[in-house]
Amino acid sequence: MVDPAKPAQINRPALALHVPEPKYRPGDTADFSHIDIGTPGDQPRPDESAHPSEMGGLAYGLVRVLGDDHQAHGPWNPRLSPDTLRAMLGHMALVRAFDERMFRGQRQGKTSFYMKCTGEEATSIAPAMALASDDMVFPSYRQQGILIARGYPLIDMINQIYSNKADKLKGRQLPIMYSSREHSFFSISGNLATQCPQAVGWAMASAAKGDSRIAATWVGEGSTAEGDFHAACTFAAVYNAPVILNVVNNQWAISSFSGFAGAERTTFAARGLGFGIAALRVDGNDALACYAAAEWAANRARGNHGPTMIEYFTYRAEGHSTSDDPSGYRSAQEREEWPLGDPVSRLKKHLIAIGEWDEERHAAMDLECAERVKATTKEAEKNGILGHGLHHPFHTMFEDVYEELPWHLEEQAEQAIRERITKFGTERPFG
To answer: I need a labelling partner for 344 at 20 to 30 A (CA). Which of 8, 87, 145, 377 fits?
Structure first.
């Protein structure tokens, strides 16, 4: 008699799991010829009120504007003025100079942590310039370009990175996790994808109040595997929230490639279609394409036509952070072989091609950016660096959470301050 608790031994193939594996590891020759980058100008630009079902090709293709001839092509050309293009290039150059200086500062022990956005500058600066200055942005941790494009003071950014006595966030945030209400820049969180439902909720509230401001959020492709991302997409679609969901697909999380977030199966933009959200897949190293996509999505949201998901297809040229060594998990040649090039170089060459820029002015701009960052850094260092004790008074750690400090926290504060005075003779031993 056959035991009903045991399955019959029939001729079935054995099941197997697929474990994603990057194509290239350290020591391998990188080859991106399998990536179809399309032709600049070949993607149609639908009406901003188009139904998501009409956008399948845009979710699987690649919106590009700048060609190998360094000219702008096709219907997605935003036709920006030379002054606007030069401003965009200047912001990108300043971010790159800032990143270099802060990275060096971390290596010198002046701060505990830093994250560069090298190779991804266009994915934050161009969209920021396409949005209204009071549109609310909910960034991830590699969008320092938004603050620079919106004119946030460099010295305030550096003070926050150093967590010194002039840090407006009073040392309560990890370095690079900025916040600025005045610049409509929501506080950065280290928790993955939490900013997505926050952005959607803010956008819903803006619509409910009859406001005209929209929201935009940024998330890495790895973070799209988080539940918060999918919850945000559901709410955005159901309530037609005026929000832009930017997915920066830079190919790598801290040490795992995009396949672990589902990149082997489909594009990240295509996920938007599944939720009923308009979707665009964009060349993330083409500043003009990034601007055009963000402008289209912003107009769509402001016209009450619904949310948009934009996948910026780009490449993380540096490590994930100062705590990361990419040579341990990817080929060193990948950066040079990336088929979409460098965003700063491409925009520079475009401006030169149209007669609005030259190598001499570019070199002068790079030098000016480096000197500006250097001078500002030295000024910020007067307020303190890591381990120098120039930080906010100890008692401030108990403030700003409650309108009136609860009795139990008041007791804890008094006890902590007494112990500090007993140990050092003063609450603030380092000045």
So the answer is: 377
What is the rounded CA–CA span in Å between residue 293 and residue 310?
7
pTM greater than 0.90 (yes/no) = yes
Q: Would you call 248 exposed, middle or buried from its count of C-beta atoms within 10 A (0-12, 13-18, 19+)?
A: buried
Q: SS3 for 218?
A: strand
CA distance 111 to 104: 10
Tell me how far apart the alpha carbons of residues 54 and 61 are, in angstroms, rounded to a whole number: 13
CA dihedral sign of residues 162, 165, 166, 169: positive
Kindly give the parts of the chain with pLDDT less than 50.
431
**Residue 392: what pLDDT?**
84
Domain assignments of the chain as residue spans, ordered by start: 52-324+336-381, 394-424
Asked if residues 88 and 128 have their Cβ atoms less than 8 Å apart, the reply is no
Q: pLDDT at position 53, please? A: 95
Write out the CATH class of domain 52-324+336-381.
alpha beta
Q: How far apart are CA 47 and CA 66, in angstroms?
A: 21
Q: So what's the pLDDT on residue 111?
A: 97
- Supply the pLDDT for residue 252: 94
Please count the residues of the chain: 431
DSSP string, 271-335: HHHHHT-EEEEEETT-HHHHHHHHHHHHHHHHTT---EEEEEE----S-SSTT--GGGTS-TTHH
Q: Which amino acid is at 354?
A: I
Q: How far is it, in rounded angstroms, from Cα 278 to Cα 303?
A: 14
Nearest-angstrom CA–CA distance, 392 and 390: 7
Q: What's the rounded Cα separation, in Å, for the pair 138 and 215? A: 8
> Scanning the structure block, which residue is given the tokens 């599944």?
274
CA-closest candidate to residue 78, choices 282, 309, 304, 301: 282
Helix (H, G, I), strand (E, B) or coil at 263: coil
Give the integer Cα–Cα distance in Å for 365 and 373: 12
